[in-house]
Structure formats: structure tokens, C-alpha cells
Amino acid sequence: MDKKRVSLPIALTVAGTDSGGGAGVQADLKTFAALGVHGCAAITCLTAQSPKGVRAILSSPAEFLRQQLLAVFSDLPPVAVKTGMLYNAELIHVLVNFLKEHTVKLVVDPVMISTSGSELLQSDAVQTMCEELFPLADLVTPNLDESARLLGRTIENQKELQLAARELYEKFGRPVLAKGGHLRDTEEAVDVLWDGEQEYTFSKPFITDVSTHGTGCTFSSAITAALALGYSLPEAVEAGKNYVSRSIESSVKIAEHYALNWFNDQ
Fold first, then answer.
1. 3-state class of 168 per DSSP?
2. Which of the following is catalytic: 115, 212, 218, 224?
3. Dihedrals φ, ψ of 41, to 5°?
4. Of the chain's two ends, which shows fewer C-beta atoms within 10 Å, N or C?
5. Active-site entry in 216, 218, 224, 241
6. How far is residue 222's CA from residue 228's CA, in Å, rounded to a whole number?
7. Residues of the chain with pLDDT under 70
8. Are residues 226 and 37 in contact, defined by beta-carbon separation less than 8 angstroms?
9. In the CATH hierarchy, which top-level class contains the domain 10-259?
10. How far is residue 78's CA from residue 12's CA, in Å, rounded to a whole number?
11. Which helix (H) or strand (E) holds 174?
């Protein structure tokens, strides 16, 4: 007896791995699965890391990244793509040249520094990312540290976060979600979306009794999954915010650490 098969949209993550399973490609694929999209991956680099920090990084050869992209797009064309850790300018060039030939929804998470303080994007690649990759994006999702680096100043409060979202839009010409999850002296985790015409603010209460990593990867991949499912950009950001907040709130203990609960009740 034939069964009716469920058809899933496809999302692709182009990012680095996390051997601890909490961030990077591992977090992205868990998020895609939890939200009902089929996840594919193109690996930019391998990292040796745990929740305590990054021990070592091994970059993929640029040609190998191109072959991964060809393999995915030839047989499993994604509706939406997210980028995470891209590491160097050569890999960014390969990705940009490939994406120029394909129509997808693109979320760029400009991963520069890990939660533990490790550099995840070489300094000479920042300009390449800004000048070549950002113009292709449907959304750029910098956290506080990344926004500060891109603007050359610190961001201390919600008003400055709102201003940062607008200034980043003016600078790069693409919708920006300025994430304020690391703002101090506030009871809410606030993120601001500016799409060039309208500002949207998303806030959830801070959850202070757990320490997790991979929230940024999870947030951006949840937005990507929602875009693959046909949500509008504001709807996708709201869905992503709700998902990552639930994942933090229902986080689980692993050894002496905490991990997001990617498969929390939807």
C-alpha cells in the first residue's frame, strides 16, 4: 500500500563544524530538523572545540567547498541558505561566485568571534565579506560584538542598538537584524530588525540561570528554516526568536555544561 510522502523544503548551511555539538553546522542541522526542513551542509572548516573554547581550526580547501556546493545544488537545490563561520577570503570568494548563479533566500550570520573569544574570521576577510557577500543577503544578523566591529564603536543600550540596525542598513544596503542578546543591565533580550522602511523589535525575558553557546547559530538557522517554509522576513525573524528563546529556556544538562534543547515543543 502506497503511503503519502511528506515533501520538505531544503535549507543549506555553509559553515564550520563544532566537535562539541553546540554550535556551527551541528546546531544548524538540528534546528532545520526541528523546524521541519531538510538540512544540507557545505563545510568551510573543521574546529576542535568544546563549550570551553576552540582548540584548533582546519580550513576546507576552496575547491572542496565549491564541490560541496555543486553536489548540493545539483541534486538538492535549497530554497534558503545561511552562512556561518566562513573563516577566510578565499572561501568567501568561492561562495559569492556560486551564489551569484543561483536564486535563494540568503541569511548571512557574520561570525567573527566565538562566545569564548576565539577569532573565527581572519581579519583580511572582513572586508571581503562586507563588500562581496553582504550585497547578496536577504538578511544580515550581527550580534553586539559584530555590530561594534562593523561600525567601529560599542553599543551599550537599546537605543544604540536601534541606531546600529539603521546605520548598518545604510552602510550595506541590506536588511539587518541587530541582535542585542548580550546587552547588560536589561531584563529583556532585545533584537532590532530594520528593513529599510520599517523597524521591528523582538524581545523575550533574559534567562539567567543557564550558560549555553550556539544561540547565534541557532537563531539564524531558525530564521533560514522559516524563510524556506515561506514566511515573510519579519515573520521568519519572529519565528526564529520564539524558537531560540524556547531552546534556551528548556536547555538540558550535558556533563558539566548546558545545551540548547533544539527539539523543544513547537
1. helix
2. 212
3. -145, 140
4. N
5. 216
6. 10
7. 1-2, 115-116, 185, 265-266
8. no
9. alpha beta
10. 6
11. none
